[in-house]
Design a protein that fits this description.
This protein has 331 residues and is an all-alpha fold. The protein folds into two domains: 226 residues, Orthogonal Bundle (Hypothetical protein af1432), CATH 1.10.3210; 57 residues, no CATH class. 62% of the residues lie in helices and 0% in strands. The protein has 17 helices and no strands. Helix 5 packs across helix 9, helix 7 packs across helix 8 and helix 10 packs across helix 12. The radius of gyration is 21 Å and the shape is flat. The chain starts with a helix and ends in a 5-residue tail after the last helix.
């Protein structure tokens, strides 16, 4: 028996009836020979980790743009925290941890420079519209590996696409990542805001702290335990009503006090203007595109190609390109 077949047999023996088994995956768009060692979801996880888009996440904003400090979250550290939380929930529910981890590691691959500020402005100025979850799927389907794509399984692509928005994932593992994403960003953004001295634990709504906990670690643990207990009880991925209401309350508090209009956001208008100008300028001057992007114009169209290029930039690369276009160079 091959090692992969052994793992597949162990999944069938040990995982929940609600888990998505590797051997029952709907497969890939392009048929490939199976790996002797890894299951299909383990291969997907590895492909994502080795992708260029994954490495670029370390230089993309989570919430705080260009903070002075080494301990603020980036899009990469956010992704790793989502993965950790999601795997813990999946383990508690005996779901497929490999599928869960692959979705979690890939869910933000299509995010723009400067976080949601970049996403927001690209959606406004591009006639095609822009959503980072859809772009994440485009990254793994089309852009990676010199436009050959990663050829991921249907379940991983579905989970990436549906980690946010109105459409729910088709697997329980995808639903777990959807919860883990919110748990991670609410709590680590609170930690970063406290580090930046924008708020303190005492500023958080007392009804939320009383229910969820009064530190990030306690809240994360309590939310994970609550999801596991209630999902087992109800046969679907869910929190108790009390925890869901408190989580929504805490999220609304963060939008009102941190995500919109706070001192942490004073640089956002500059970032939006920069991304907008880059997109519009390159749209008028496609010769600035790297050769591999320029060659894609005939097949993908000019606007889609420029969108792919700008959305894939890291914060510092966007700044460098902007300076190269608009700031006179010394001579």
């Amino acid at each position: 028996m091959q090692i992969r077949e052994y793992y597949e047999a162990m999944e069938e023996k040990n995982l929940s009836e609600f888990a998505c088994l590797s051997k029952r995956s709907k497969g890939r768009e392009k048929i490939e020979r199976q790996c002797d060692i890894r299951t299909v979801f383990q291969r997907d996880r590895d492909r994502i980790i080795y992708s260029k888009a994954f490495r670029r996440l370390k230089h993309k904003t989570q919430v705080f743009i260009s903070p002075e400090g080494d301990h603020y979250r980036t899009r990469l550290t956010h992704t790793l925290e989502v993965s950790q939380i999601a795997r813990t929930i999946a383990r508690g529910l005996r779901l497929n941890e490999d599928l869960t981890e692959a979705i979690a590691l890939g869910h933000d691959l299509g995010h723009t420079p400067f976080g949601h500020a970049g996403e927001r402005i690209l959606n406004q100025v591009c006639t095609l519209g822009f959503k980072h979850n859809e772009q994440s799927v485009r990254v793994v389907d089309v852009l990676e590996k010199d436009r050959k794509g990663l050829n991921l399984t249907w379940e991983v692509r579905d989970g990436i696409c549906c980690h946010t928005g109105n459409d729910m994932p088709s697997t329980y593992e995808g639903c777990v990542v959807r919860f883990a994403d919110k748990i991670a960003y609410i709590n680590h953004d609170i930690e970063d805001a406290i580090r930046a001295r924008i708020l303190s634990e005492q500023d958080l709504p007392k009804e939320c702290s009383n229910t969820l906990g009064n530190t990030s670690s306690r809240r994360i643990n309590n939310m994970i335990v609550n999801i596991i207990e209630n999902s087992i009880k109800h046969g679907t991925i869910c929190m108790s009503q009390e925890f869901q209401e408190s989580s929504d309350c805490l999220r609304n508090f963060m939008f009102e006090n941190i995500y919109i209009g706070s001192i942490a956001k004073v640089e956002e208008s500059k970032a939006e203007s920069m991304v907008k100008e880059l997109f519009l300028y390159i749209l008028k001057t496609p010769d600035l595109l790297p050769p591999d992007y320029y060659e894609a114009i005939d097949s993908e169209g000019l606007e889609q190609t420029v969108l792919d290029y700008v959305a894939g930039m890291t914060d510092r690369y966007a700044v460098k390109k902007f300076q190269g276009i608009y700031i006179p160079a010394s001579w």
